[in-house]
Specification:
Two copies of one chain form a homodimer. Chain A is α/β, with parallel strands linked by helices. Helix content of chain A is 35%, strand content 17%. Chain A has helices at residues 15-26, 41-58, 74-85, 97-106, 219-224, 234-249, 252-273, 301-310, 335-351, and strands spanning 4-5, 65-70, 89-94, 111-117, 139-142, 144-145, 150-151, 162-165, 182-186, 197-202, 277-279, 290-295, 313-314, 325-328.
Chain lengths: 352, 352
């Protein structure tokens, strides 16, 4: 029985990717992908392909950017961005838990200006109309807030370098990615399994801070070694490459964005139409990746949970900071899975 | 045709592990192991099992140690050990490239005393008879030197905390592991695929430095969250768990050490017996994991390379710092593969 996996991440990836990855664990040019040297010709080709596909999808090929696949997770990037870029003062937009964690790590390195925050409403909206100090070393935003189900629809125009945690919506929608000076994203949403983090960095952004940067935390180190300064997370990078190839073979970001919009419309229309449910995020800031919603009357909780469990839906429980439900609909999720969820919401309505 | 994989790491792992890992990429309790949440009951059980098996194999269960599986590689531990433990002064034994890298990272945090070095002889031996300052915050050693093929046979008795990079020989031989206060090891030799790093740390070692430690670099943070502070490298941890289970099912360290000694004896006996070859490392310091050797006369190189290539042997080229050949014979390598290599060395002798 097929499971509809609505997990917030690690999350659903394309079935074709699972099949190819499974085969390669047994046989990748004669060896298991798990036992090949990272210095082998075969793996160097995988790394280069993953890097070039990442830049190609973002429209950043030959634009002065480098793509790195690092270990450690996006949480390490909260630290590395500050370590590498923060000399005196940086500006942050606080749109939720992950922004707060980024701010917390950066505070050890300089003055942090929180230009705006939606904490006053449990981060159910994206602040707008804020001012970014023109003397900030950079401005940091979180493009999609997995926990709260909000998404920045319009990327701000600023006069300082723009740094973005794009972990949960990279490769899901078309943007002018050249507006960003540094983008980072944990692989485990739209790109691959847990264990790799993509960093896309404009090279001329670097070399401006005076502090000592430890080798492993230095973007310049990793760039100088083409993302092979130390043994990279071979299998997570390989599966990321497969997923980026899958995206290309399926029309790239433009095509997938269309499907993502359909999926989002399907669930949000039901949340708004069905009297039993209510959305959490401000309508104009709703994420196309993570829909957060709840029952207006928790008396229906047992019945609804039974319905979606019976429909083989998994990963629907909301994050503890918000409660209720969260439907994560990343690139690899088919429209049919969202339809299956909507069906259970309608079934609840009929039974209630 | 089966390939004899002598790669230095990432390297051979048990075939049974490849089979189980491949299956789980398709179906792990109904989902792919690549798409399950790291907070799911199933993965929490994997992480706990991996941690408890690691401690069990080392005989450190209930001895005040914690086992962590982190991302980032052992290279990140060069930094983290210093960040967490170095207040004023630390002592390092320099036995090669990896020791040097550890020393380089630590220097930014305090005074480094290099108690001894074998650099004078391109690290072909392990220095002995050195003194460790009694006021050092810790003493750092590299138990096995993959590149040079040396191994510390006797773990030094010191009066300061003992920190060990055990990346390339952990779980390969029995030691009194309670002598160590902190052990770290990249997974990609005897434990699993690239992308996870095991840290076994005595809890009372921590909390003694006064500097600010960023969250992701703090052992205390990772301990407080049971190695789940951020999304861990799910699949590398899973495969590490499978490999640690395989080790247990095959008699644990005691049983595997016996095989490792047989494999090492087989290759070193041939190196010493065969007039065409010479060993690189000092005899008493020879690694049971990585045998480094070369042809006395490079005129035989083409013939020898053809022979071992024809025998489906791969990964035998030595590291550029040493040249010649390196046969890495980690836990999962069967005696037959070493015999296959010895056969080609004897065939060369007959033909030469």
């Amino acid at each position: 029985m097929h499971i509809h996996n609505f997990s917030a991440g690690p999350c659903i990836l394309p079935q074709d990717v699972f099949k190819q990855a499974s085969k390669s664990v047994i046989d990748f040019n004669g060896l298991s992908i798990l036992e090949i040297s990272h210095r082998s010709k075969d793996f160097v080709a995988v790394m280069e392909k993953a890097q070039s596909l990442a830049l190609e999808h973002l429209g950043l090929t030959d634009m002065g950017y480098k793509a790195l696949f690092l270990g450690g997770g996006a949480s390490m990037q909260f630290l590395m961005t500050a370590y590498n870029l923060l000399e005196k003062k940086a500006a942050y937009l606080n749109t939720g838990t992950w922004s707060e964690k980024a701010i917390k790590e950066a505070k050890a390195f300089g003055e942090i200006i929180e230009v705006a925050s939606s904490k006053d409403a449990n981060f159910n909206y994206i602040p707008k109309g804020y001012q970014v100090p023109s003397d900030a070393d950079y401005f940091h935003i979180t493009s999609n807030n997995t926990i709260f189900g909000t998404q920045i629809k319009e990327i701000p125009d600023v006069n300082v370098p723009l740094v973005c945690d794009m972990s949960s919506d990279i490769f899901s929608r078309q943007l002018d990615f050249s507006k960003f000076d540094l983008i980072y994203a944990g692989a485990q949403k739209n790109m691959g399994p847990a264990g790799a983090t993509l960093v896309v960095v404009k090279e001329d952004l670097l070399g401006k801070v005076t502090r000592h940067i430890p080798s492993m935390l230095s973007y310049a180190t990793h760039i100088s070694k083409d993302s092979m300064f130390n043994t990279p997370p071979v299998f997570p990078v390989y599966v990321s490459m497969l997923t980026l190839e899958w995206l290309k073979n399926n029309g790239g970001i433009t095509a997938i964005e269309k499907v993502n919009k359909e999926k989002a419309a399907l669930i949000y229309n039901e949340i708004d139409r069905n009297e039993l449910f209510q959305g959490f995020a401000a309508v104009e800031d709703r994420s196309n990746m993570n829909a957060t919603f709840s029952l207006k009357d928790t008396a229906h909780k047992t019945a609804f949970d039974q319905l979606w469990n019976a429909a083989n839906i998994s990963g629907l429980n909301g994050h503890r900071s918000v409660g209720g439900y969260r439907a994560s609909m990343y690139n690899a999720m088919p429209l049919e899975s969202v339809q299956a969820l909507v069906d259970t919401m309608q079934e609840l309505e009929r039974k209630a």
